[in-house]
From TrEMBL:
Transmembrane segments: none annotated. PROSITE patterns: START. Signal peptide: none annotated. PANTHER family: STEROIDOGENIC ACUTE REGULATORY PROTEIN-LIKE, STEROIDOGENIC ACUTE REGULATORY-LIKE PROTEIN 1. This is START domain-containing protein. It comes from Panagrolaimus superbus. Pfam families: START. One of its GO terms (biological process) is vesicle tethering to endoplasmic reticulum. GO terms for cellular component: endoplasmic reticulum membrane; endoplasmic reticulum-endosome membrane contact site; late endosome membrane; lysosomal membrane. Residues 49-229 form the START domain. GO terms for molecular function: lipid binding.
Length: 232
């Protein structure tokens, strides 16, 4: 039986799910890697990070690590931390209907209460052909913060097809933190480290990833506002 223990919460596979053992352990390792970056001494100040995009609503930074270039987005959402997290996490399969960055989204299987495997695709962006990704996703609540992390996994029954280039997500992570003293404001911090694969110039990759992160946030913010309006 495959088991992971992440921040005191145990996820274990049922006997008939053992084929996903590597995916589960990958999710645990991804969470550890992301949590370490989020809690680095200079993460909040972004002292050693390069500014990629700086607007009034959102900021995107980048920093090179031994495993690749990590992009970090920082912004605020007018919603409680629980609502902000749930909208981002629970609405995954509906994302293509409200997020133009997503052309396909499906939950392949749910392994535990905190872990599932996703398959999604982006449309063509600039000169970059559509990419698809298969990732393991894990979430935790640590103190008053919610964390959600994702990393590429391999599934024999989901091979690459001619329709998309199979990209690799090393880190796709979000942290949702309450903004004191306002209970209806949440700070979101997203990390992204992706290998798009294929012959794509580095300058194009940097431009595409930064813009994708901002577009994702803008679309998610619209979704939050719609959800909040419909709940009133």
């Amino acid at each position: 039986m495959t088991i992971i223990d992440v921040h005191g919460v145990v996820d274990k596979l049922e006997t008939d799910q053992e084929k996903y053992a590597k995916a589960l352990t990958t999710c645990g390792k991804c969470f550890d890697d992301a949590y370490q970056i989020f809690n680095e001494p200079d993460f909040e100040s972004k002292k050693d990070w390069r500014v990629e995009i700086d607007t009034e609503e959102v900021k995107v930074y980048s920093k090179y690590y031994p495993f690749g270039n990590v992009f970090a987005l920082k912004a605020r959402v007018p919603a409680s931390v629980e609502a902000a997290f749930k909208t981002s996490y629970n609405d995954f399969e509906s994302m293509p209907t409200w997020n133009s960055n997503m052309s396909y989204a499906k939950v392949i299987t749910k392994l535990t209460q905190h872990v599932d495997i996703l398959h999604y695709a982006n449309p063509d962006v600039m000169i970059v052909k559509s990419r698809d990704y298969v990732v393991g996703r894990l979430w935790r609540k640590v103190g008053h913060q919610y964390y959600c992390t994702a990393r590429s996994v391999e599934l024999d029954d989901l091979p690459e097809t001619p329709d998309h280039v199979r990209g690799e997500v090393f880190l796709g992570c979000g942290r949702f933190s309450p903004v004191e003293p306002d209970p209806n404001m949440t700070q979101v911090d997203f990390l992204l480290c992706i290998d798009l694969k294929g012959m794509v110039p580095k300058t194009i990759i940097n431009a595409v990833l930064g813009k994708m992160m901002v577009k994702d946030f803008e679309e998610t913010l619209k979704r939050h506002n719609e959800v909040m309006a419909n709940s009133n």
